[in-house]
Amino acid sequence: MRYxxxxxxxxxxxxxxxxxxxxxxxxxxxxxxxxxxxxxxxxDPGVLDPAMAVLSVTNTVLSFAYDTLVHYGTDGKIVSGxxxxxxxxxxxxxxxxxxxVTCSDGSPLxxxxxxxxxxxxxxxxxxxxxxxxxxxxGMKAEADDAAGTxxxxxxxxxxxxxxxxxxxxxxxxxxxxxxxxxxxxxxxSGPYTLTEAVPGDHYTFQVREDYVWGPGxxxxxxxxxxxxxxLKVVPNxxxxxxxxxxxxxxxxxxYGADRARLEAxxxxxxxxxxxxxxxxxxxxxEDRPARDPAVRRALTQALNLKExxxxxxxxxxxxxxxxxxxxxxxxxxxVTGHVPAFDEAAASxxxxxxxxxxxxxxxxxxxxxxxxxxLLYATTKGAGVQAAAEYLAxxxxxxxxxxxxNGVIDTxxxxxxxxxxxxxxxxxxxGVTLPSQLEGFLSGPAAPKGANFAHxxxxxxxxxxxxxxxxxxxxxxxxxxxSESAVFEAADLVPVVENTVLVATKNATFDVVAGSARPTSxxxxxxx
Length: 528
Description:
It contains 13 helices and 25 strands. The chain has 528 residues and is α+β, with helices and mostly antiparallel strands. It has a domain of 222 residues: Dipeptide-binding Protein, Domain 3 (Dipeptide-binding Protein, domain 3), CATH 3.10.105. The strands form eight sheets. Strands 13-21-14-20-18-19 form a six-stranded mixed sheet, sandwiched between helices. It has a four-stranded mixed sheet with strand order 3-12-11-10, with helices on one face. A four-stranded antiparallel sheet has the order 6-7-9-8, covered by helices on one side. The two termini are 22 Å apart. 57% of the residues are buried.
């Protein structure tokens, strides 16, 4: 089993789940050349422009067609990608690009292409949701085409300036000139080229046989490398499991009850990986009841989080210890002792003190307004999330809250989070690999203008992050952990459980990055 680090992206919204990978070889072990690898994705990826890619399923699709400057290796260390070497200072990193890289349309990749990709995201006019998350606030890119270099710099020292590069997809060729082409197409230097896109059904890619600039110099010339990739949209996990068993697909990530069935099925490769936290946010907009910190703490105290963890993960989870996925740059437990503890009596008393008194129908009322919460969650992440939503509704009803459940598909969830804002509580898995990647979600401009979808304004968090940003790597770790604890103590974000998921394979092996197969690691094997 090999570990890789991934990125932060709302993905169903799990921010790019980092995972260890490698499904067991379930065939004969002999490579099968020139075949088709079919992988199930749980939802349609939507718009394919990398600058607008928030959902993890979108980034899964894009990873086949686009490259990044550098990558994380299987040991968690930075390895080459489009760049063959790099030089890091506290506020800048200069990459020297390989000279043999071409875009899918045959045009050469230039440093200017890289710089434009970064600056496009950083430009407020583009309204990229990645600005301030993938691209640190104030970052700019400068190209030197003659020297073959591109420099990424920030206005002040930034702890993880190099470590941010593996998540930035580079657009080149025709798509760089006309980004409208990227809505349903791709234009990158990746190992595969998108040849067919049927929204809601499948996305087909053809291998680039001249590709030699993958992670650490990986190529598409290895025995067993698929000639074709099909990403099949399969929203129902039971269907995905059935397809795996029958041989209709080669791989899937399974969150729910069907994982037990697959784990007991001979001939299926099985790897259990971390799937990000099950957790929820309170909306703190001006007209929302959870804007009051006393209400947030009371609502959290009304919950038996240990019991909820078992429900949400179907008994397969682990205690949450932080917001950053393994392998963490800052190991430690930022959760224990920092989340309001279960105490129904204290919760009731706190709501009374905050002015929310029980009404004749049992629903609490303040100034003639009932205490109502709209609970938003994704329907594509298994029965556990649905069960967790129902558990929350029942527990809060007992405390005198009227809860409306709103289960939606991934793309609708993203719209609700960032545009319509029609929610009060959202169950939102976020898996990041750098604590800095959380800043845009947990502070700064509120949605719809910024990535701060919950309208958080935690001054202690902001102060700690500002201090941590100026310290390189491990030196700032104590501050990064304290910043997470500050969010939990204020009940801005409630971590419930660290989920685990099953990566199941048949007649194929691969490393897992961002919850899906790393393209250059995929190997088909003959059926046993």
